[in-house]
Specification:
By secondary structure, the protein is an alpha/beta fold. The protein is built from 13 helices and eleven strands. The protein has a nine-stranded mixed beta sheet with strand order 3-2-4-7-1-8-11-10-9, sandwiched between helices. Strands 5-6 form a two-stranded antiparallel ribbon. β10 and β11 form a beta hairpin. α1 packs across α3 and α4 packs across α13. The chain starts with a strand and ends with a strand.
């Protein structure tokens, strides 16, 4: 199996793009990645998207995007809820690694803000179990609130103990021109924010938005002195029960653990070698659970990393969400996994300005689908 490298990246700002279509957003990111790689074409396009059929009335998205950018080869949509972006990347990697193709454009794209908020809420809930969760009337944020409430009860944490996750993401997003919410927040703002589903308030939850992010991938052995190339050293994927109540340990992300262990082994990378972590902070509780599942904290002790300033850039043990994460960069769900990849490449190239992790050589990116049902982990390093 051939090793894979990223040679070009592109992204749009996460925003309310009222005048732009889903194909237009995908096209902008794709053309930017082609220009960045100094390439004119690819062998295939893999698009990560969750909601085009529900919110845009547009299935067959692979063909739509290919048509828009003038491409006639293989082009498909990959869907695995909020982890669709990383799933598309993994599909493209496998196609190249097998020798079937020699290059692929992977784009994550989502158009969410044209739909009514109630429709978006209903669409997002389809990431959960329709028979055993949605039928009971619980929303997706409600499911995460149940997890957070139980976590606080089991381990003795207070709501304020999760504040560092949101404060860190917003502080980093203030330096990201593509962020949805590019401003810092205070602890007081966090604590006084409007409650959505107790104990999750507005500052615990990531904002939706429109956006697209793309990466051009090729076999690593095809490169000739490309100093900006980044190797995808490890890739792991795993699933857990889609319904939370069916899990043996509801407060542990088993799929995150399994996919991370697979990626570590494939990359030959130890925990101590990871310089930053682009985690899936759709809700602040998920930041804590991801840190625990990936080995950076003991079970039940994820918030301690934030309280001890261990998640800050150039100050802590494991900087997270270096460009704002889902919480402040924004969470256009099917595109999120590719934003994480693009931002990881920027870190490894040394292109992150005020939020650059000094001497970064290895990065970890983890994309979560549903409330932990589908999780993909990638390890990137300087080629």
């Amino acid at each position: 199996m051939r090793k894979i490298a990223i040679i070009g990246i592109g992204q749009t700002k996460v925003h309310e793009h009222w005048q732009r279509s889903i194909r237009d957003l995908a096209g902008e990111a794709i053309f930017a990645a082609l220009e960045d790689a100094n390439r004119e074409s690819v062998d295939a396009i893999f698009s990560g998207n969750m909601l085009s059929g529900l919110l845009d009335q547009q299935n067959n998205l692979g063909a739509v995007i290919a048509d828009w950018v003038g491409f006639k080869g293989e082009s498909v949509k990959i869907e695995s809820a909020c982890s669709s972006g990383a799933s598309a990347l993994r599909a493209g990697m496998i196609a190249i690694a097998s020798g079937e193709i020699d290059s692929a454009m992977v784009v994550g794209v989502e158009k969410m803000t044209d739909a009514a908020p109630t429709d978006v809420t209903s669409a997002l809930a389809t990431a959960a179990d329709s028979d055993w969760e949605l039928e009971q009337g619980v929303s997706f944020v409600g499911l995460n609130a149940l997890i957070m409430r139980r976590y606080m009860h089991e381990y003795g944490w207070q709501h304020k103990d999760f504040a560092p996750f949101s404060l860190n993401s917003h502080a980093n997003a203030a330096h990201n021109p593509n962020a949805r919410l590019p401003f810092a927040i205070s602890e007081k703002q966090y604590l006084n924010a409007t409650m959505i589903a107790a104990p999750i308030n507005l500052m615990d939850a990531s904002p939706t938005g429109d956006g697209a992010a793309a990466a051009l991938i090729v076999p690593l052995d095809s490169l000739r002195g490309d100093q900006r190339a980044v190797e995808i050293a490890g890739s792991g994927a795993a699933t857990d029960t889609i319904s939370i109540h069916s899990r043996k340990t509801p407060l542990f992300l088993q799929a995150a653990y399994l996919s991370a262990q697979s990626a570590y082994a494939q990359a030959g990378i130890s925990l101590e070698e990871i310089d930053f972590f682009e985690l899936h902070d759709a809700f602040s509780i998920m930041a804590a659970l991801s840190l625990e599942a990936c080995g950076f904290a003991e079970q039940g002790q994820g918030p301690r990393l934030g309280l001890d300033n261990e998640i800050k850039i150039n100050h802590g043990r494991i900087p997270i969400c270096t460009m704002g994460g889902l919480k402040a960069r924004g969470h256009p769900v099917g595109a999120t996994g590719m934003y994480q990849i693009v931002e990881s490449v920027q870190q490894l190239r040394g292109e992150c300005g005020e939020t650059q992790v000094e001497g970064a050589k290895v990065g970890l990116a983890q994309n979560i689908g549903g409330s932990g049902a589908s999780i993909i982990t990638h390890i990137l390093k300087i080629a």
